[in-house]
Amino acid sequence: MDALYTAAATATHGRDGRTVSSDGKIDLELGIPVEMGGNGQGTNPEQLFAAGYAACFGSALGLVGRAAKVDVSDAAVTAEVGIGKQGEGFALAVTLRVELPEGLDEETGRKLVEQAHQVCPYSNATRGNIPVDLVIE
């Protein structure tokens, strides 16, 4: 692959530290969620992954929608990223909730969501590695 763009960010002190992007546009305090024994102050990696996946999937949906001449510009994507114990370590699972524009028939919407799942870089990176459930709302 020839990269069109490369993002870089540096994290210090792991989940209980800080992350900063190379251009300084992201500069966040990180914190462990209460559910995992932390104080819940600060952003956590799962939130960052969810935000990135939701935005990327929304763009992929727009791409396949334009190719099919279907307006999905009012679609909204919510990514839910779960983390839990798996064996000796931890694992992730994702649910993508896609709210399609009113008036779009269910069959067309499902087809576009499935096509977006094939072209989205996040979907391609996770495929076969973690479960990703697609839910159309």
From TrEMBL:
Domain of life the protein comes from: Bacteria
GO biological process, one term: response to oxidative stress
PANTHER family reported for this sequence: ORGANIC HYDROPEROXIDE RESISTANCE PROTEIN-LIKE
Family: Belongs to the OsmC/Ohr family.
Protein name, UniProt field: Organic hydroperoxide resistance protein
Native organism: Streptomyces coelicoflavus
